[in-house]
Design goal:
This protein is α+β, with helices and mostly antiparallel strands and 249 residues long. The protein has two domains: 206 residues, Alpha-Beta Plaits; 37 residues. 33% of the residues lie in helices and 13% in strands. The chain contains seven helices and nine strands. The strands form four sheets. The chain has a three-stranded mixed sheet with strand order 8-1-9. Strands 2-3 form a two-stranded antiparallel sheet. The longest helix is centred in the last third of the chain and has 35 residues. The chain starts with a strand and ends with a helix.
C-alpha cells in the first residue's frame, strides 16, 4: 500500500459539513455539531469569513512527537502513513497530548475507562481510505499517495497564483505531515496552528521527557483517576438531589 496522505484544498470547500458527518458515522459517534476537537470530534470546520472554510484534524506527522512521547508505544505511526492509537497499551499518562505541536489528541476525562481520541485516518477502512475524502462533494478533501498529492498541490499553487497563497502547509511543519493544506490565504489567516520549528519534534520532546521521573507518569495516572472519582461523586450527588426534588413536587 502506498504511503497515504490527505490534501485539503480550502478554495474548493463550500462548508457543507459532509466530511464532519462522514467522520462521525465512520467512527460510530453520535451525530452532533462539531465546534472543536474533543473525544467525540475528530474533525470540524472553521468559518473564516467570506465563504472560507477550513478543516481541523490530525496532521499525521511524518515523525510524530505524540508517538515518541508515548512510553509504551500506544501511539505509533503505521508504514501506510496514519498515526494510530492502541488503547490496550495506554497507561493514561497523556504525554501525547502535551507533545503534539498541533494540539490534536484529546482525552475522555469523564469516562470510567478513559482513552485518547483523535483522527486515525480511517486506517481500518483499508483501500477505501478516509471517509471524509470519500464524502466530499467538491474534491476539497482528497486522499491518495502522499507524494502524488504533494505534486498535485504544487501544480495547483504554482499554476494559479491569483487563487492560491504560495505555500503548502504541512510540507515542512514539524518535520512534515501527511495532511497537506493549500488555500487562498497564509496558514495563520486560515486559522491553522503556527508551528515554529520545521524540524521533527520527537528529539526535542524526548530531551524534555527523559528527565521526568517515572513517579510523575504514574502520579499523572493517579491524578486522572482522582479527577474521575471526584467528578463521578459530584454527578451522583446531583442525580440524588434531582430525584429528591421530584418526590417533593
Amino acid at each position: 500500500m502506498a504511503h497515504r496522505g490527505i490534501l485539503v484544498d480550502v478554495t474548493k470547500c463550500i462548508g457543507c459539513g459532509s466530511c464532519v458527518e462522514a467522520c462521525q458515522k465512520a467512527n460510530n459517534q453520535p451525530a452532533h455539531e462539531a465546534r472543536g476537537l474533543d473525544d467525540q470530534t475528530y474533525t470540524y470546520l472553521m468559518d473564516r469569513g467570506n465563504d472560507v472554510y477550513v478543516r481541523r484534524l490530525c496532521m499525521h506527522c511524518e515523525d510524530p512527537s505524540c508517538a515518541s512521547a508515548c512510553p509504551v508505544s500506544a501511539m505509533h505511526k503505521t508504514p501506510e502513513g496514519p498515526v494510530v492509537y492502541d488503547a490496550s497499551k495506554c497507561l493514561g499518562c497523556r504525554y501525547c497530548l502535551l507533545a503534539c505541536p498541533f494540539g490534536v489528541p484529546t482525552y475522555e476525562w469523564h469516562s470510567a475507562t478513559p482513552r485518547v481520541q483523535k483522527c486515525q485516518m480511517c486506517y481500518t477502512r483499508g483501500e477505501q481510505g478516509p471517509a471524509c475524502a470519500q464524502a466530499c462533494p467538491t474534491g476539497a478533501t482528497k486522499t491518495g499517495d502522499r507524494d502524488e498529492l504533494l505534486a498535485e498541490a504544487r501544480r495547483r499553487v504554482v499554476s494559479d497564483p491569483k487563487t492560491y497563497f504560495q505555500h503548502i502547509y504541512g510540507v515542512n511543519a514539524a518535520g512534515g505531515t501527511d495532511v497537506l493544506f493549500i488555500g487562498p490565504k497564509d496558514p495563520q489567516a486560515l486559522g491553522l496552528p503556527k508551528v515554529n520549528r520545521n524540524l521533527p519534534m520527537p528529539d526535542l520532546t524526548w530531551q524534555a521527557l527523559k528527565h521526568v521521573p517515572d513517579v510523575v507518569m504514574y502520579g499523572g495516572v493517579l491524578l486522572g483517576g482522582l479527577f474521575w472519582l471526584t467528578k463521578r461523586k459530584d454527578d451522583v450527588a446531583r442525580a440524588e438531589q434531582t430525584e429528591r426534588g421530584k418526590h417533593h413536587v
